[in-house]
Write the structure tokens for this entry.
Amino acid sequence: MPETISPSFTFVKAGVFYFSRRIPKSLQHHYTSPRIVHSLRTRCARIAKARARRAADQLDEYWYHLKSHDTQLPGQHMLSKVASLPRVDTPSPAHVASQSSSVTLSEAVDIYLRLKGNGKAKTFHTMARRSCGYVLDICGDKPLNTYTKKDANTFRDALLGRDLTGSTMSRIFGTVRAVTNFAASEMGLEFTNPFAKVYFDREAGVSKRQPVSQDALLKIAEGCLEHDDERRWLIALIADTGLRLAEATGILREDIKTDTDGAMHVVIQPHPWRSLKTKGSERIVPLEGQSRWAAERILAHASNSPFAFPSYNHGETTNANSASAALNKWIKTLTGETITMHGFRHALRDRLRAVECPSDIVDQIGGWQTDGVGQSYGSGYPLGVTRKWIKSIA
């Protein structure tokens, strides 16, 4: 439905949809106004339509009970004073209004992505819709405050039936909790999330990622020097920096900087085609060893593309998944080991531990979250300090 057309029982004021319905004349003596009007708290016509329809249905039900209660029964004047008419349990108008302001799960996803999804990668949107889509398929689309612990357990059991790993289930439940908590907070709902504290084995089917061994690092370095092409530059860039694969594949040539003293570093910052995992992922990383070699080869290679790795940046988003599959396959052929690109991050942390690098410096180099309020103060360690530790392992 076009945004310019107001759904039934609604009007638009300052871009926000409002519910409006005239009270039947026979029931107006129950109210202080002849019309019910309240904000639907949305600018989206589709969401407004669903909320207005729900409010109208609840009012129809309430008004039916009011009319039944007001109806004069035959012989009512003959009832004794102590007798009472049969009790009719009717919801109060305030209860109707509060219920109409609830939000369904499908609406919650729209709210979450509209407010939190701006500038986020496509995978962020896909994960939210896919995870909550599982709930919709299994438990139905209901107002958030009507989901129960039984629904959450049914959802868990259905996921277990799909033989998902514990880590995958953790991501799905985490996304559902994030969406529902955020939407409930935005709508001002009192909400005890039934999808919290649901038990399942979070280690089921999970294999621990192993860091790249020193022998494998040497073989990979030799292979990169021998092949000397875009794929091998990407591997070498990550090997001595611990960059996430998506971070590395999405950088521009201009993100690689040469200092006045000839030293080099790379600026990791969000781009429209590639967001960063966390705010702490935004950082400056020194380039030494294999990573410096890769940076020099990237800048020396004549290219019309602004991207350091144009093969993985054809469209609107960086295709890190495509890079991962191809690079992992080559590394296994070279080393005979099953090594993932993420293993270089694990290896970097172990290599820095081996030279007794302080953990907060390790966190800054790798873009890991550092615990403690004090860590959020200041600008972090200067480039010269982080370079010293990278040099010690490169």
The domain at 214-393 is CATH 1.10.443.10 (hpI Integrase; Chain A). The chain has three domains: 1-68, 105-187, 214-393. The radius of gyration is 30 Å.
